[in-house]
Design goal:
binds nickel (II) ion, binds D-xylose, single chain, about 450 residues, TIM Barrel
Length: about 450
């Protein structure tokens, strides 16, 4: 029986580009085959439980704006409320036809007075999820632990100066990995919400790095022990909530993984907004992760380009999505990963159908971006000029230089002997930008 939260809406139809129906897809058509694969299997959409069903609509100047029947002010922080929330969540997943969802422990269960009570509550909800997943066919893209909201984590979780907080966090990750495994999750994500610092005056940076390295190694060891086949993913973010987060960006995370012997065990979950906060573009982070062999999954949202804050807005910029999926597809596309909407409504968007429209718009935008990326790839619109630009490197002398068969002196002899005097060539940026704009 329906909760009635979304009125009588049961399934959002695909109506095509000419539709003016705000509750229909115009571009996302799950069964449409592009580049040999159904759109649904390319994009692997997931809905983030936290922003859509838990976030109350607050900002630094005001609290709750959303009124939801399962919120604590209506039902208390109870298992009944958690079940109602799950009912509504699965109604929304079904209405939107997404294949996946993602959650933190704290999003889905009431907060207990102890670790044991938290675990019991989580296990209760996991059972409830199992029924709903069987009923609807909706799967879990990833699970994660919230190691940042509770006050015990104010100075970090794994990087806390207090070893008991480290232990509490480790136990919590164990219970969340167990839950994810039980639900056949395809990945497990670690976003180090407060793994960072406010001031060096009270922080031993080296020690905290060692702590975090050991923590992630314990997670990887346990994953293998229980036979969890999914990928372990770290989600980089440069700052917020702490002034300096240790998982700054993809490059920093890679350095961390290498340092702790984890580069073949852990990949990255890249979020658009976090890339912007780090002073990068989303596509930079995606391309680098591909180059380093650690690309896992994406958190899809958009950051405000002026605010310097993680605004987590729904994506609405097709050219940006086209370039992003171009990178995803160039790396071979998703394996265990997918497109998780780590995006929330604006706090004035009060109506239940605002939630639907936000996702419909985001999914349509991704679908358009995907189709543009596929077309650019099949036309070799960017790859042909790129190949051409580096063509000199396929010559024998150049290959030897790269392979380490030439010393610095030999290279100098070559330059002198042949009187090399290379002429600069145009990078053709504007031409290439115009090419991209033909596809979007
Ligand atoms: C916060 C992060 C968070 C992670 C999951 O900025 O994006 O939502 O995705 O803990
Ligand atoms: Ni995220
Ligand atoms: Ni974020």
């Amino acid at each position: 029986m329906s909760t009635g939260f979304f009125g009588d809406i049961s399934r959002i139809p695909f109506e095509g580009a000419d539709s003016k129906n705000p509750l229909a897809f115009r571009y996302y058509n799950p069964d449409e085959v592009v580049a040999g694969k159904r759109m649904e299997d390319h994009l692997r959409f997931a809905i983030a439980y936290w922003h859509s069903f838990t976030w109350p609509g607050g900002d630094p100047f005001g609290g709750q704006t959303f009124e939801r029947p399962w919120f604590a002010d209506q039902m208390g922080d109870t298992m009944d409320a958690a079940r109602l929330k799950a009912d509504v969540a699965f109604e929304m997943f079904t209405a939107l036809g997404v294949p996946y969802f993602c959650f933190h422990d704290a999003d889905v269960r009431p907060e207990g007075a102890s670790f044991a009570e938290n675990t019991r509550n989580l296990e209760g909800i996991v059972e409830y999820f199992q029924e709903k997943m069987t009923e609807t066919g909706i799967r879990l893209l990833w699970g994660t632990a919230n190691l940042f909201s509770h006050r015990r984590y104010m100075s970090g979780a794994a990087t806390n100066p207090d070893p008991e907080v480290f232990a509490f966090a480790a136990a919590t990750v164990k219970s969340c990995l167990d839950a994810t495994h039980k639900l056949d999750g395809e990945n497990y994500v670690l976003w180090g919400g407060r793994e960072g610092y406010e001031t060096l005056l009270n922080t031993d940076l080296k020690r905290e790095d060692d702590q975090l390295g050991r923590f992630i190694n314990m997670v990887v060891e346990y994953k293998h022990k229980i036979g969890f086949k999914g990928a372990i993913l770290i989600e980089p973010k440069p700052q917020e909530p702490t002034k300096h987060q240790y998982d700054y960006d993809v490059a920093t995370v890679y350095g961390f993984l290498k340092r702790h012997g984890l580069e073949n065990e852990v990949k990255v979950n890249i979020e658009q907004g976090h890339a912007i906060l780090a002073g990068h573009s989303f596509e930079h982070e995606l391309a680098l992760a591909n180059a380093l062999g650690i690309f896992g999954s994406i958190d899809m949202n958009r950051n405000d380009y002026q605010s310097g804050w993680d605004t987590d807005q729904f994506p609405n910029n097709v050219p940006e999505m086209a370039i992003a999926y171009y990178q995803v597809l160039s790396g071979g596309g998703f394996t265990t990963g997918g497109t998780n909407f780590d995006a929330k409504l604006r706090r004035q968007s009060l109506e239940p159908d605002d939630l639907l429209m936000a996702h419909i718009g985001g999914m349509d935008c991704c679908a358009r971006g995907l189709k543009a990326a596929v077309a650019m790839i099949s036309d070799e619109a960017l790859s042909a000029p790129l190949k051409d630009r580096y063509a000199g490197w396929s010559m024998e002398g150049a290959q030897k230089m790269l392979a380490g068969d030439r010393t610095l002196e030999q290279v100098a002899e070559w330059v002198e002997g042949e009187n090399l005097n290379p002429e600069p060539k145009s990078g053709r940026q504007e031409l290439l930008e115009n090419v991209v704009n033909r596809y979007v």
